[in-house]
Amino acid sequence: MREIKIYVYPFQRTDGRTTRLIIDGIEIDNPDNRLHQFVVKKPVSKWLCPYRKKLFVWKGFFHELALELNASAYRITYYGTKEGYDEFSDEVERQRKMLEQDGRVVNVETMFKEYFSVRKAVSVLADAFDSVFRKAYDENRFDLSRAASNAKKNLTEVPCHLFFLGCSDELTAEAEAIPLLKTGTKHPRAHFVILGDSWNGGGLRELLPELQYIECAAVFVPEKLREEAASVCGGVKLVSYGDSLGNAVESFLYSAYLPREVSHSIEKYYELAQQFEDYETDAYLIESSENIDWLFR
């Protein structure tokens, strides 16, 4: 059995590294290695799922790993966020089945070890911005209080444009009530297509050009319609949902959108907090800074 460890950072580190790959105790760090070229130091969006770009074909992380190592059994430990692991393990299983259909029977066991909690980071940073807001307001520094309030909103509200195809009134209402989403905004930062049980295959292809160049875009589809949607979805992220659309959307935001916001918010917090003369001695700011530091330990 081949032992695989993969570290997936949900944020851009200062050294530019977002993925580490260790196979049988040896870190893959050879630029000539195909897995190094297309996985190591690349964000998960670039290597997890299959894609085609002109003549180049990437069959997905596990498919490529199995072809590279040519083994019959794998134990993969994923170090990252819970949301990221859920997506990773689902996709690995899909690719295992694809290999099986191609006549390559392989066994795979996936395990999770939390390395960074985006949910905890959002909560910690929201509290940190509250501390800056209160201190700035008490000192009549209303420019800083407004900046702290806006920074918290950027972290806890996602301006979003929703498209509905084949959705019931109940599903539409559920989507519009998801707490993190802010719909009806003039400047959306996320575009989501929601496919309902009544989707008949139409309308999606026409929306794809608008979604292709949006940084945070996804199509949410009932599991039973996934294959049909995948046949027309192109390079736009496809996310299956079961009983709860809200949980699927929230998990996607925590894995694909909020890590970047967390990274920006950490920089913003220090930018604001350090404008106070007593930044290094104020009890509330010290506590906030320490809580942020603990996120990385």
Q: How would you portray this structure in words?
A:
The protein is α/β, with parallel strands linked by helices and 297 residues long. The protein contains ten helices and twelve strands. The strands form three sheets. Strands 3-2-1-6-7 form a five-stranded mixed sheet, with helices on one face. A five-stranded parallel sheet has the order 9-8-10-11-12, sandwiched between helices. Strand 6, helix 3 and strand 7 (107-114) form a beta-alpha-beta unit. The two termini are 31 Å apart.
Can you summarize this structure?
This protein is an alpha/beta fold. Helix content is 45%, strand content 21%. The protein is built from 10 helices and 12 strands.
Q: Can you count the helices?
A: 10
How is the largest sheet built, in terms of strand order? 3-2-1-6-7
Anisotropy-based shape: globular
Given helix and strand content, the structural type is alpha/beta
Following the backbone from N to C, one meets helices and strands in this order, namely EEEHEEHEHEHHEHEEHEHEHH
Q: DSSP strand (E) fraction?
A: 15-25%
Mean pLDDT: 90
- The rounded distance between the terminal residues' Cα atoms is 31 Å
Q: Please compute the radius of gyration using only Cα atoms.
A: 21 Å
The helix content is 40-55%
Low-confidence stretches: none
The total strand number stands at: 12
Please give the largest β-sheet: 5 strands, mixed
Set down the secondary structure blueprint.
Blueprint lengths: L1 E7 L10 E5 L2 E2 L6 H5 L12 E3 L2 E3 L2 H9 L3 E8 L1 H20 L5 E8 L3 H21 L3 H15 L1 E8 L3 H8 L4 E2 L7 E6 L8 H8 L5 E6 L3 H8 L3 E5 L3 H29 L9 H12 L3
Parallel strand pairs: 1-6, 6-7, 8-9, 8-10, 10-11, 11-12
Antiparallel strand pairs: 1-2, 2-3, 4-5
Helix pairs in contact: 4-5, 4-9, 4-10, 5-9
